[in-house]
């Protein structure tokens, strides 16, 4: 087969994938086909079928391929900087979409959507980050932002900056979340100390810390509120404040 014949065949295959998406939706695609189509956005004249299969075999799942670093992706034959740009661009679009989708909604009725955003934005990170969801007095979602990166402990998170960010947004309540790159959902002693310190400091500013979420590696979330830890922290802080009043 000469080059022109190969290009015509490849163009026909890519058009069939696009037609399939329009006619049947994303659910009709295999993970390999999704990755292939994303890779072709970067190199539209290249056959990306084998590269997509190799990436899926290497990383085991679609989310893992999207979460892989550029250095990891470049180890796959057929994937270069333009393909990596396409993968990272769709990741960025998805994160912005999920973040903007939650703004303006009431947290109580949208906690699952908040968790989806946090999972997507934190999953696969090799370092810890602390994200804050800012809420108004009616627990409507104002904004969400990363406020700290690196090891998240009481010694590395600066409460003044967190409170400053909350006041700048006129937030009355907060939900904090951080990821465990190890994948474990079990909170550490440092996680509980951080929650206790932030709750106490926020209380002085009349800001309510509603929950602390831990994001693991398997799309699971650990909630301090659901586990009763927040209730205990609130009770302990009330007793402390009563003694100092």
Automatic annotation (TrEMBL):
Transmembrane segments: none
Keywords: Hydrolase, Metal-binding, Metalloprotease, Protease, Zinc
One Pfam family cited in the UniProt record for this chain: RadC
Domain MPN: residue ranges: 107-230
Superkingdom of the organism of origin: Bacteria
Keyword Zinc on entry: yes
Example GO biological process: proteolysis
Signal peptide from the UniProt entry: none
GO molecular function: metal ion binding; metallopeptidase activity
Statement: the UniProt record of this protein carries the keyword Disulfide bond: no
Family to which the UniProt record says this protein belongs: Belongs to the UPF0758 family.
This protein's name: DNA repair protein RadC
């Amino acid at each position: 087969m000469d080059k022109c014949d190969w290009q015509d065949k490849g163009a026909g295959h890519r058009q069939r994938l696009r037609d399939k998406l329009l006619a049947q939706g994303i659910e009709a695609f295999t993970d390999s086909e999704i990755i292939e189509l994303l890779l072709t956005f970067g190199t539209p004249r290249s056959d990306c079928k084998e590269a997509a299969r190799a990436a899926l075999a290497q990383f085991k799942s679609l989310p893992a391929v999207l979460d892989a670093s550029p250095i990891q992706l470049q180890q796959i034959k057929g994937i270069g900087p333009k393909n990596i740009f396409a993968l990272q661009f769709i990741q960025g679009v998805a994160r912005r979409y999920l973040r903007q989708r939650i703004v303006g909604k009431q947290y109580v009725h949208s906690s699952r959507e908040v968790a989806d955003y946090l999972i997507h934005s934190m999953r696969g990170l090799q370092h810890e980050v602390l994200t804050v969801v800012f809420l108004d007095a009616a627990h409507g979602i104002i904004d969400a932002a990363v406020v700290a990166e690196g090891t998240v402990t009481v010694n590395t998170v600066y409460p003044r900056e967190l409170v400053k960010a909350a006041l700048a947004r006129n937030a009355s309540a907060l939900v904090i979340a951080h990821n465990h790159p190890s994948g474990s959902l079990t909170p550490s002693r440092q996680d509980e100390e951080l929650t206790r310190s932030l709750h106490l400091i926020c209380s002085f500013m009349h800001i309510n810390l509603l929950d602390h979420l831990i994001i693991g590696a398997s799309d699971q979330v650990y909630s301090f509120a659901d586990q009763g830890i927040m209730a205990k922290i609130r009770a302990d802080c009330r007793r402390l404040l009563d003694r100092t009043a």
